[in-house]
Design a protein that fits this description.
Strand order of the largest sheet: 6-5-3-4-7-8
Order of helices and strands: HEEHHEEEHEEEH
Shape: globular
Strand content: 5-15%
Helix content: 25-40%
Number of helices: 5
Length: about 300
């Protein structure tokens, strides 16, 4: 009896085929990742828009109940220095009841001031609506070295770089009580609140970060310019060395979103302004009664 054996030829990937498959997968992943990152950034920008809208509503509710916007900072005298000395009560503290933070508002001793020991535990509180999801926070978000609550958003105190004082031309400044009737340029053309970027350490020394209760450059900025993001923070490059700011320097707005900053206007609307906005238009957006009427197509 003759036995017939069938021999089945086993197939396997060759090295060349394996490399081709790996190359194709790598190409597909390379094409997919930018789309994933863009989707994530779009979600973060949407969250930031919502935060800005909520802050605008809180400021408007304050105006509705009191007849005026909150003071950008409450302090006996000025100009305001970026130092933990003084009352320095920020607009953020004043609108806490309109951000569903009633308990925090009631416990905060406003007369004692932003840096008082009685408020020490409270100023460490982290308020979600004050944080842009794209912002790394002070020193890249290292809260062990900055054990205070911080804010990604600031009110507009002036149209150009100037110390925070009683004579500023924005909507939120030292001991201000701005009403809608005072916004002669139109509330839709006047910037109320926007994002800001954080300073990087200089020669290993961390910048002063005073937190959301402080009515200093921690919660107030101007439309003097759009602050750039330091390349050192994300790439380690030696270019773009951070410049030290003096105690009276406030600084402009800025964003960690690519290409544009999220802003809330005096009329309650929220939109984005390009990082390449014309400076004259930017200055015009910061003043409440400068006589300028910037065209919406300019920004």
């Amino acid at each position: 009896m003759t036995m017939h054996r069938s021999h089945r030829r086993l197939r396997a990937f060759t090295l060349v085929e394996l490399l081709v498959v790996i190359a194709i997968i790598g190409t597909l992943v390379g094409l997919l990742l930018p789309a994933v990152q863009a989707a994530r950034e779009a979600a973060r920008r949407c969250s930031c828009l919502n935060n800005t809208t909520q802050l605008g509503l809180a400021l408007h509710n304050h105006e509705f109940h009191t007849g005026h916007f909150p003071a950008g900072v409450i302090n006996p005298d000025g100009p305001i220095r970026n130092e933990a000395v003084g009352q320095h009560l920020s607009w953020t503290v004043q609108v806490l009841p309109y951000m569903e933070q009633n308990s925090l508002f009631r416990m905060f001793d406003q007369q004692a001031g932003a840096y008082a020991e009685v408020n020490d535990t409270l100023r460490r509180s982290n308020i979600e609506v004050l944080r842009c999801p794209s912002s790394p926070g002070p020193r890249g978000g290292d809260q062990s070295s900055t054990p205070i609550g911080w804010s990604s958003y600031a009110g507009c105190h002036n149209s150009i770089e100037a110390p925070i004082d009683v004579g500023n031309d924005g909507l939120l400044f030292l001991n201000s009580r701005i009403r809608f009737d005072d916004i002669l340029d139109g509330s839709s053309h006047t910037l109320l609140v926007s994002e800001h970027v954080f300073e990087d350490p200089i020669d290993g020394v961390s910048p002063v970060v005073l937190g959301w209760p402080s009515g200093t450059r921690a919660t107030l900025r101007n439309t003097g310019r759009i602050e750039p993001i330091s390349k050192r923070r994300f790439t380690g490059l030696v270019e773009d060395e951070p410049a030290e700011k003096g105690p009276l320097t406030v600084g402009g707005f800025g964003s960690y979103h690519p290409g544009a900053s999220v802003v809330g206007m005096g009329d309650g609307s929220t939109r984005a302004i390009s990082d390449s906005i014309n400076l004259e238009v930017l200055h015009a957006l910061g003043s409440r009664a400068g006589g300028e009427l910037p065209n919406n197509t300019d920004w």
